[in-house]
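User:
I study polymers; will you set down one protein's sequence and backbone structure tokens?

Assistant:
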Amino acid sequence: MKKILTIVGARPQFIKAAAVSRAIRDCYGGSLEETLIHTGQHFDHNMSEVFFEELGIPAPRHNLSISGGSHGAMTGRMLASLEEVMLKERPDWVLIYGDTNSTLAGALAAVKLHIPIVHVEAGLRSFNNRMPEEINRIMADRISTLLLCPTETAVSNLAAEGITNGVSNVGDVMFDVSLHFRELARQKSRILTTMGLKPGHYVLATCHRAENTDDPARLQQIVAGLGTISHSMPIVLPLHPRTRQILDTAGLLETLGDIRVTPPLPFLDMVELERSARAIVTDSGGVQKEAYFFQVPCITMRDETEWTETVALGWNTLVGADATRIVSAFEALHDGSLDAAPYGDGRAAHKIVDLIMAH
């Protein structure tokens, strides 16, 4: 029996782990044992436990309850705790997702103990080294054994850095998840009825990245842009607790007016809101892709994106943090092209597990 240690700590990782955990159980339940570690990076109930419940992810054997503090302090505490767990569990593989502090801490702990690392969502690049996520993903890619990419662009990024061994394009696990859960969300979620929303007649917005929330000028522009849009169409704005506190401290929370601010929402409710929106305005990498999967135009409040395919196909517009550009993109909404399928065939999770077992 081979043993794999999966490290998660943030919403996007919970979602990706759901698909891979299901593939492990379906295909290799008798020969591959998965142990889940939750670092605690997202500590709010609606951003952690509820995802395990809704997505059918195995309950974590270890919950480190590490959150808050600076990037360095958080990552250091995670590194020490993860090393201790790895020494106890003695896994054959460590599986990490994406680009969070949990990802980097897991990679560093594993490589120092000579445990092979599987990095799901390898090769993504924003080419903006001021983003903590960019540093995390670059470091994780340098020390991983299997680098499992969601797109050919990611494969090319790694090749340009001289990384070719262990690299495979498996497709995007998030596409697997969207195919699996969109019908379930339609059947089970009551969020549209609860909020009095009509499909195609509202905008879903999210904002959480430090480059926006920690810059008062950018945050003020974002609030102004969303406020203008809200005069012509309802906006739903689920807010991370940290973002809500920043808005409140800056005196911007009360300026949101008719925008419908909610706490972070359960996964199925978010899927239903995404797939039924007229448009999505976000700074989230995962939400950009989910908009594309559900064929909803996306306005991205960043200066660059790792998901360049969504822009090339016309589904995603980059507007930075500029109120005028945010509003102009909304006024010019249009559907993009469906002529390409850059994120695979919906079987990324099975390919990931097959590659692990074959290595």
Q: What stands out?
A: The chain has two domains: 2-172+344-358, 180-331. The longest strand covers residues 2-8. The domain at 180-331 is CATH 3.40.50.2000 (Rossmann fold).
